[in-house]
Amino acid sequence: MDFKRVYTSTKTYIILLISAFVLLLVMASMAYKQTIKLQESAEMITHTVHVYNVLGNLSRHAIQADSEEFKQQLLKKPTESEILKKYSQEGKQLIDSLKKLTVDNPMQQAKLKPLGSLLNKLSGQLYVLDTLNLESDQEFFEARELQKEKISKTLFNIRVIENQILKEEERLMHKRKSEYASHKFLAPLTSLILAFFALLISFISFLRIYRNKLRFKRSEALLKNILSTTDNVINYYEPIFNNANELVDYKIVFANECNRDYFDLEPDEIIGKKVSEVFPVLVENGDMVEMIRCYKERKTVVFDRPLMIQNEKMWFHSLVTPLEGGILVTARNTTAEENAKEAQLLFKKRLEKHNLELLNNRAFLSNILKSISHVVIHLKSVRNNEGKINDFKISFVNENVTPITGDIPEKIKNKKVSEVCPDIFNPVVLEHFVNVVEEGTTQHYQVPYYQNNREQWFRATAIKLGDGVTLTLREITEEKKTSDRLTHLNEELVIQNSILSDAENLAKIGSFIWNPETDDLEPSENFYRMLGGISENKKTPLSEFREYVHPEDIEVYDRRNLKSITQFSSLEHTFRIITKQGGLKYFKTNGQFVNKNGKMVMVGVVQDVTDTIIAEENLLNSNLKLKQSNAELEAFNRVASHDLQEPLRKIQLFISRIEDREIEALSDKGKSYFKKVTNAVQRMQSLIKNLLSYSRIDSSRTDFENINLDEILSNVEEDLATVIKETGVELIADKLPVLNGVAFQMEQLFTNLISNSLKYRNLTEAPKIEIRYELVDSSSLPNRLSKEKKLYHQITFSDNGIGFDSQHAEKIFEVFQRLHQKTEYTGNGIGLAICKKIAENHNGHIIAKSSVGSGAQFIVFLPV
To answer: Membrane-crossing residues (predicted)?
Structure first.
């Protein structure tokens, strides 16, 4: 193969030749400009001499008017008028000549205006002297002398202006002489420099061509050595045209040794053959079309293709580059990378699916708890050595507890109820909770709460969940007060006011009065609305209402009603109804018998508890899914920590034995392959380690504590002391706050961000990392981030490294996402994903800002 024809180009020499030619033109134009300036300077000196001459004539013209001879001529008759006219005409001509010569000098032009006026004045004074005719000789003499005196003054003023003009011209003459002398010196000097520069360019061009010839020989030898030792298939093809001058195929001109390693093809045997004959698969899968397009459009083409070689699927990344007379094809074996990508993609999809389900469940549960006005508490049983429940621990409480007790949910979590609420948690309440857990029954009761000499009443509903109790509290203080006041009134007022109070103060609640003897049901207006309207009459038979009860609940509904009627006992029951519009609702009825006008009637309240029941079911399902997801993650941790690492440990063991005993027996290429295997095992171990770190960051951790970030930073600096010393990085940090978090996760966050800045530092300048702190309002956060708290700790990590394109600011926080090849920078693309997960675990955020070559900023927002 003709390496010189393939890998060399004349563009460099053409550019140098054009540059030299342009420089010569520039130098020649400079010499030409110097000559023109020299000529212009000579013309300006000549122009000044002309001005001198005209000024001299003007001076003589003025002196003539002051001479006695000229005055005597004016006094003679009759030629005086002709002499004066000729004299005046001569003055005007001199002034016009000066105006033309000084047209480029505004200052001289300004002086010529009064000079012309003085000459006209002089002509007038001479005319007066010429026409002077008095009877007395004495009078004639005195008048003539007076007129001569006026003429002398005018001539004096003319000489003053002439001297000013003359001085300005003398100044211009000195200046122009200096410019002429300068141009007279520079013109030949520029020509000499031009000749010397042309000689210098010729000499440099000769040296450049000679050195390039030597460099080409060395590059050719180096290229041959690279092509013989590379792991990539490198072939060079020349085009084959048909009779219509259309490119239809290629001829193999060069093929390196890797053709034998991967395709079992001898390089010497395939040289000279057609590509379509040696590699027919390129025609079948359409790659030949791309290769033809590469030659025609002179554009690089890249494609990844799988090939079946000896019944084994192998992937190759091909780069087709157009050269002068053909194309260069470089194919790299990417089988291992593609297999790893498939495994990583599968794992990533599973992990994303689990995380998405977990986030959805968590968000759904959070929205439910925020949307209701009730206090929701989940209590976990605390048992003694005998297995009996003696207390309960608060594992969850929503924020609605704060306005009532003043307690912050985060501070009372994981504490015993007996410690937090010793006044409320009496033996009766404990018995209620124990019955719920042990028997699985739902308990409803009312409980008072005293704070700051104020009494509050709550209606509590306790439901079993696992080995604990989910407690829902609704404040009924006003209802309780109203009920107490109504006990002092008569029976009618008690009944009516109870119905009105319940209907007005309870949402989604209707009331009714039912007479069992007549089967008349008197529902409230809200009851009508809840059912969609069952009758236009004020009274309706209970059997008509029964038609709206769900068919599956009819049997239990009838049985409860029968028991209540026969025993005159209170009725409490939850059942489903189908509204007039076909909708499904859950009704909870609570009624009791009272004596009205000597007859036993039932007074009751019906509550629409559809939302509560659905929320409880969703909450239960979400908890079950959350437990299942956590179990799968724990199973993955066990597999990753043992089953995935065990084969790697065995590979490392065998690698160590081969290095100790057999390494010298391997060829240089074998040693190179062996080193690649060792590096691959180390990368796999690092990948598993980081995956374990990522999966073990648990958002439900309970070991949050007050941590000092200054101490965290100090520990990180101590761990990275060796790297910091080797890189010479300047680390500047503000005083950092104390916040509630997980210490080892914060330490990992700081370590990953500082290590990232050290890894991607700029090698052309001293590395510098700044850690700045600021307490900011939630409005300072970007709009796309959720803002659950009012104040946030803002910690900014800035460096002067190589930076990255701002369009990748979100991508870099994804698992396995890298912006550089592993040959450029080490790593596996999990470090920043761990940082993001740690920030979210602390209910915070992390964002990145950067541009290529301008360093990077990682900003962490943590709630106060």
So the answer is: 12-32, 185-210
Position 733 confidence tier, pLDDT thresholds 50, 70, 90: very high
* Bridge partner list, 447: 458
| Tokens at 392, concatenated | 């309960």
Residue 504's pLDDT is what? 45
CA–CA gap between residue 61 and residue 65 (Å, rounded): 7
Q: How far is CA 741 from CA 244, 389, 707, 864, in A?
A: 76, 32, 7, 11
Would 849 be classed as within a structural domain? yes
Distances from the Cα of 169 to the Cα of 50, 95, 162, angstroms = 10, 16, 11
Same domain, 486 and 597: yes
Do residues 127 and 84 touch, judged by C-beta distance below 8 A?
A: yes
Is residue 575 a contact partner of residue 608, using CB atoms and an 8 Å limit? no
Same domain? For 66 and 200 the reply is yes
655 and 800 share one domain: no
The CA angle 689-694-700, to the nearest 5 degrees, is 135
| Cis bond before residue 78 (omega within 30° of 0) | yes
Phi, psi of 797 (to 5 degrees): -100, 110
From CA 659, how far away is CA 674, in angstroms rounded?
9
Count of domains forming the chain: 6
pLDDT band at 472 (very low <50, low <70, confident <90, very high): confident
Check residues 454 and 328 and name the one with the higher pLDDT: 328
- Domain residue limits at 678: 644-696
CATH number at residue 403: 3.30.450.20
Residue 527 is assigned to a structural domain of this protein = yes
CA distance linking residue 38 with residue 208, whole number of Å:
38
Q: C-alpha 142: how far from its chain's center?
A: 103
Q: Side by side, which strands form the sheet with 233-241?
A: 247-255, 233-241, 327-333, 312-322, 301-309
Instruction: State what percent of residues in the chain have pLDDT above 90.
Output: 8
Six token digits for residue 374: 């009730």
- Residue 3 confidence (pLDDT): 43
Q: What tens digit of pLDDT does each residue of 423-450 get?
A: 677 777 788 788 888 888 888 878 787 7
Residues β-bridged to residue 234: 330
Query: Are 240 and 252 contained in the same domain?
Result: yes
Q: Tell me, what's the pLDDT at 131? A: 65
Interstrand relation of 584-596 and 856-863 (parallel, antiparallel or unpaired): unpaired
Local confidence band at 693 (pLDDT 50, 70, 90 cut-offs)? low
